[in-house]
Hints:
Shape: globular
Order of helices and strands: HEEHHHHHH
Number of strands: 2
Structural class: mainly alpha
Mean pLDDT: 87
Amino acid sequence: MFRKPDNYEYFLSLYDKYIEPVAATYAWVLMPNHFHLLVRIKNIDDLHLTGFENLSGVEATKPLHQYFSNLFNAYTKAYNKYYETRGALFERPFKRKLIDNENYLRQVILYIHNNPIHHGFCEHPVEYPWSSYLTCVSIKPTKLHRNEVVGWFDNEANFKTVHNEKLNWNEMDNWLEM
């Protein structure tokens, strides 16, 4: 799915185009063969659907999953054209999970940021460039809802401390499947 840095960057640019208008992003990680996103679909009053006459138009009422479909289709077309391949990159429909409490929310963020460690790409989230962890510990401007994410861990120091702890992946996988 992602063979080189340009692939990751292009996917993120398409993400910004298709998903940012309809969803607030809290955490993400792009891995060579899969990715994880933590988003909250925006309220209708918060939607920034550029290029539409008004929110009562046909485009504004399309199902929100269509924005994700548009992202996946756009990336697949570009990928296949660049690598002279054919077919789908996304084999299964994406999974959605309702997050209904703050503890679960923190666990999902830890899972996302530690996914590169789990798959052997690095030993700490700070070492992996294709995740929102670096954005969370940065002061650079971002569309990521960094202050809220760090706030769910009380402060940046605790955010870093919790991310330094070793995760029990069997327990984490079981817990997240609930």
